[in-house]
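Tokens in:
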């Protein structure tokens, strides 16, 4: 009589796995997939194949595991070829347990792949992999990601930051191309996000990424120009130069990027580089800007010293004078013990910078923002003694919306003024929050603006302009359904200008049928109805709806009227993605140029007596 007890179902199942070599096959499959992925990471970039293809390979390997294991269970590879695995003799086959085990494996694999899809956006990646780069298509938008410092001591961060900002500034001069601001791209420093995802978040056609490697007086700048949607490598640009004339080098790099994009833009837009500025002065200037960007009292003090060093070397260096004015002004706000003298001197220096170079956007922006902020930050007793500035901007234009800083020096002043305690300026805390939201939206950062707008409408549910911005933010973020829901909530507030229940129902139906296009169709109808009823409707708003729907001629006609009316929303022409499809049209570029000139109109001469600007 045998003492061997009959094996359980689970024991028989384990024996079958061993006999059919399923475990060994699974390990081999995993090892082969790992090797294939490692090779793909090395080989694909050499042929310009992006991360999307590698992610696709991961998905295919995961999905192929289950059918491969099933085949390994059913078949053996023998010397006679592939044969069906023979069944065990003398014992019943563990059908129920084997089916259960395969179900567990299947659920595990499917669950893992599902998690990967949801967490890594593989569905979008698969869609991206079908997009190809067409070099004949015009480039309407681009973003320059923060440059890495690959210098040996990692001590050239200031140089990389300066190169990054100036490259953005020069590319921003291009007509017909929307260039994302430095503020918007800085959050991607050191990011591990994929190129297509960054491109979607910023809403751009092309991304430029790269590095700076400086050793002594030699500098190497390497840039990768990449088509964002397809993650396709367009070109690599490399510059090995003497580090002396940085401004000239920045102009050269910008020229090269434009040439490689074959966008047909005039190179004369880059003739503003001050090639005759002392290289040592340039070095001090960029160190000063780096300290300034820290946004701290210590940083402003250090920046002040560097800007003064730059001016001691070259007294006509207007950007350094503007930086000096900005740093002194911010120090005067942070340290009230300095009294009004520091603020007045900062304003004097800003006026001097304009006398040196009246064409510099950086210079004009610093003066404009100091001039606007000046009355609100002066100590109470000094306001009557110090001549108050006359704003260069026409009183018909709301100050908080027309001027939105575009340069690094201006943005730091603007951001600081948002944090001035309530009561120190005429602008209420709610107004400062609204300005911050508007800056996000002007920069195309709709997903970031939406939650801030939700806070604002919660605090003031009867503020219809804020609700309107909220619906636009959701549409800009690619979620028209959320925009329709926001409009529904808006309609329940009873606020003046809120849509009716019937209007919201039409919006919901339009979005359900046509998505984002449905929203813009509804929006255009609402604006036209409002105008018919006698309410004032901005031409820029109507033009935006027509542009979003592809009505180019109607949009351009309305924009021309907006210029004649000097509408404040024209300030967003260069940065709002809704205008991207029009950027290749020469008529739009002419309007865009006029809008840029209007940012500081009517022009004001600061060449008269110090502290008393004189209108021309």
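Residues out:
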């Amino acid at each position: 009589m045998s003492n061997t007890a009959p094996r359980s179902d689970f024991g028989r199942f384990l024996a079958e796995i061993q006999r059919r070599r399923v475990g060994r096959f699974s390990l081999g499959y995993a090892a082969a997939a790992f090797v294939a992925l490692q090779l793909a990471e090395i080989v694909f970039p050499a042929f310009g194949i992006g991360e999307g293809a590698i992610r696709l390979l991961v998905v295919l390997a995961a999905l192929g595991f289950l059918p491969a294991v099933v085949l390994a269970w059913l078949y053996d590879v023998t010397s006679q070829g592939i044969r069906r695995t023979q069944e065990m003799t003398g014992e019943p086959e563990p059908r129920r347990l084997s089916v259960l085990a395969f179900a567990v494996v299947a659920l595990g694999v499917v669950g893992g792949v599902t998690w990967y899809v949801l967490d890594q956006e593989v569905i979008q990646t698969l869609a991206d992999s079908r997009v190809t780069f067409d070099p004949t298509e015009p480039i309407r938008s681009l973003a320059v990601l923060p440059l890495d410092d690959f210098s040996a001591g990692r001590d050239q961060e200031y140089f990389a930051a300066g190169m990054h900002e100036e490259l953005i500034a020069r590319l921003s001069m291009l007509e017909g191309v929307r260039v994302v601001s430095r503020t918007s791209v800085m959050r991607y420093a050191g990011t591990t996000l994929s190129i297509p995802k960054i491109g979607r978040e910023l809403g751009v056609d092309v991304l430029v990424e790269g590095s700076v490697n400086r050793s002594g007086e030699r500098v190497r700048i390497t840039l990768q120009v990449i088509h964002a949607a397809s993650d396709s490598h367009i070109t690599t640009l490399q510059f090995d130069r003497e580090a002396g004339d940085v401004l000239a080098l920045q102009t050269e790099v910008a020229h090269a990027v434009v040439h490689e994009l074959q966008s047909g833009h005039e190179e004369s837009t880059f003739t503003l580089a001050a090639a005759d500025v002392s290289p040592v002065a340039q070095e001090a200037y960029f160190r000063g800007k780096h300290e300034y960007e820290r946004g701290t009292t210590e940083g402003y003090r250090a920046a002040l010293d560097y800007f003064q060093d730059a001016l001691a070397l070259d007294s006509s260096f207007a950007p350094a004078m503007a930086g000096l004015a900005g740093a002194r002004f911010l120090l005067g706000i942070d340290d009230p013990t300095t009294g009004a003298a520091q603020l007045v001197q900062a304003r004097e220096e800003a006026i001097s910078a304009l006398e040196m170079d009246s064409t510099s956007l950086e210079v004009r922006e610093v003066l404009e923002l100091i001039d606007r902020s000046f009355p609100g930050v002066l100590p109470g007793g000094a306001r009557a003694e110090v001549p108050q500035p006359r704003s260069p901007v026409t009183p018909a234009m709301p100050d908080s919306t027309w001027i939105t800083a575009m340069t690094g020096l201006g943005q730091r002043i603007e951001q600081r003024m948002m944090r001035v305690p309530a009561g120190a300026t005429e602008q209420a805390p709610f107004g400062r929050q609204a300005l911050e939201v508007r800056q996000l939206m002007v920069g195309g950062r709709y997903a970031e603006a939406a939650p801030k707008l939700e806070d604002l409408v919660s605090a003031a549910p009867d503020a219809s302009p804020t609700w309107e911005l909220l619906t636009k933010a959701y549409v800009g973020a690619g979620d028209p359904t959320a925009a329709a829901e926001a409009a529904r909530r808006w309609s329940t507030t009873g606020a003046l200008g809120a849509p009716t229940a019937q209007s919201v129902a039409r919006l919901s139906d339009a979005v359900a049928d046509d998505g984002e296009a449905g929203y813009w169709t509804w929006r255009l109808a609402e604006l036209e109805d409002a105008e018919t009823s006698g309410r004032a409707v901005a031409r820029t708003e109507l033009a935006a709806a027509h542009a979003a729907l592809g009505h180019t001629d109607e949009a351009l006609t309305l924009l021309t009227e907006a210029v004649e009316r000097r509408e404040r929303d024209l300030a967003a022409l260069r940065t709002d993605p809704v205008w991207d499809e029009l950027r290749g049209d020469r008529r739009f570029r002419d309007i865009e140029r006029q809008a840029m000139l209007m940012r500081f109109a009517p022009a004001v001469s600061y060449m008269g007596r110090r502290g008393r600007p004189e209108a021309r």
